[in-house]
Specification:
Keywords: Bacterial flagellum, Cell projection, Cilium, Flagellum
Strand content: under 5%
GO molecular function, one term: cytoskeletal motor activity
Shape: flat
Structural class: mainly alpha
Number of strands: 0
Organism: Halarcobacter ebronensis
Helix content: over 70%
Protein name: Flagellar hook-basal body complex protein FliE
Subcellular location: Bacterial flagellum basal body
Largest sheet: none
Length: 101
C-alpha cells in the first residue's frame, strides 16, 4: 500500500492555476447570448424542480421534506437574482440611452 504524502503549498497552487485556466478557457469560448441563455435555462430548471417538489409535498410523495423545501427556496432565490440582474441591465441600458453624444 502506498503511503499518503503531505500536501504542499506548491501542489495547491498548481491545482488552483489549473482550475482557473480551465474556467477561463470555458468562458472565453461562449458568447454573451449563450451565457445568458444558459443562465435562463438554469433558472427555469430550478423553477421546474421547485414545482415538482411542491407537487410532491401536496400529494404526500415526498420522502425528505427538507430537500423539497430547499429546492423551493433555491428556486425562489434564483428567480429573485435573475430579476435583479435584469433590473440592473435595464437601468444600465436606460442610462446609456440617455447619454448625449
Amino acid at each position: 500500500m502506498n503511503s499518503i504524502s503531505p500536501i504542499g503549498v506548491s501542489s495547491i497552487n498548481s491545482l488552483l492555476n489549473n482550475q482557473s485556466n480551465n474556467q477561463t478557457n470555458k468562458t472565453d469560448d461562449k458568447s454573451f447570448s449563450e451565457l445568458l441563455n444558459n443562465a435562463i435555462t438554469e433558472v427555469n430548471d430550478t423553477q421546474v424542480d421547485a414545482y415538482n417538489a411542491m407537487e410532491g409535498i401536496a400529494t404526500g410523495k415526498v420522502k425528505n421534506l427538507q430537500e423539497a423545501v430547499q429546492k423551493i427556496e433555491e428556486a425562489d432565490l434564483s428567480l429573485k437574482l435573475a430579476l435583479e440582474v435584469k433590473n440592473k441591465a435595464l437601468a444600465a441600458y436606460k442610462e446609456i440611452k440617455s447619454m448625449q453624444i
